[in-house]
């Protein structure tokens, strides 16, 4: 028997009491949460998982048969497993638009980058305003905003005034602007604690892409 | 024309030069990253997205036709969209084991929780040691470790000595132990910046589950 398995009746009783209190407190809190609305969700920070967690929500939508759409602002040049899987198996539930043409340091052409970002933003507005999608993911839009390819004030204004009440909009990318965080309902900062690149490990299939 | 679209030849030249430098620096760094190995990945922190991003990596594996497995340590009582989707469509690529019987504050039975956690850990060891899975996700194992239902030293020893070189193991849950972070290759802390529960919004289909 390991240490973790040792237990006494007294331990068990104390534990049951503690957990019962936790459950009561949690049930009380949950009972006050009754509203539903389309959320503005932001995933930012230097860590991994911003886009991955956002695609996870798209898969949740697919699992429930709810319609969604993805607009990729920057990563257009990169092939991702999720995109291939969605295109191959779930294209009837999730629309996919890849408007960026790769990371900006790959293209070195500012005019082309701006045109691509503006086209992606126009498509994003159309998808959101239609009210036909339960969730619209604007993948890496924060990068396009940070480079001023898209005007942050226009994004904030649009989300505040044009987003249908029940539509969820997810915006990802590091360096999310304060104006965006201000109007968001759910903001998570993915913080990098440790990264395998530091020890010479390359990006691997099934992990990074 | 918006401000973001205004550009001058001088701006463009400066931008191209800056991006070319970035690309050269990045290419140089990427050239040193040549190793492949199975990573120990930890998603922790109080924010959202820990499990969602981990399931995203499972979907990447599915997209590439690579075999994976999921062991759910705690959330057994909750139905998640991802699980239903994997079971319905991709069970040939991803094995699913739900060993926990709900959050600990739901059960209030320490002996039962310990037995469930130990059973999950036994299954996890079997799946990892087999070498047949490219990725094994130990969902919410950090909670079971935190409550001492599983011995952290046993987990660390096992991962160090028994994990096959090319197998990725992903461990999620808040309050990851320092001993685990120490041996991990990739650690991300999901930090909560803003949460809709605070304004009375309940958990919604396609977002939280």
From TrEMBL, chains A, B:
Molecular-function GO terms, alphabetical: corrinoid adenosyltransferase activity
Main location: cytoplasm
InterPro entries per the UniProt record, alphabetical: CblAdoTrfase_CobA, Co_AT_N_dom, P-loop_NTPase
Enzyme Commission numbers on file: 2.5.1.17
Major enzyme class: transferase
Reaction it catalyzes: 2 cob(II)alamin + reduced [electron-transfer flavoprotein] + 2 ATP = 2 adenosylcob(III)alamin + 2 triphosphate + oxidized [electron-transfer flavoprotein] + 3 H(+); 2 cob(II)yrinate a,c diamide + reduced [electron-transfer flavoprotein] + 2 ATP = 2 adenosylcob(III)yrinate a,c-diamide + 2 triphosphate + oxidized [electron-transfer flavoprotein] + 3 H(+)
Keyword ATP-binding among record annotations: yes
Biased composition (Basic and acidic residues): 7-19
Subcellular location field: Cytoplasm
Domain of life: Bacteria
Alphabetic keyword roster: ATP-binding, Cobalamin biosynthesis, Cytoplasm, Nucleotide-binding, Porphyrin biosynthesis, Transferase
Keyword Flavoprotein recorded: no
Record-annotated Cob(I)alamin adenosyltransferase N-terminal domain positions: 7-30
Annotated segments matching region Disordered: 1-27
UniProt xrefs under PANTHER family: CORRINOID ADENOSYLTRANSFERASE
Family statement: Belongs to the Cob(I)alamin adenosyltransferase family.
Functional summary from the UniProt entry: Required for both de novo synthesis of the corrin ring for the assimilation of exogenous corrinoids. Participates in the adenosylation of a variety of incomplete and complete corrinoids.
The protein, known as: Corrinoid adenosyltransferase
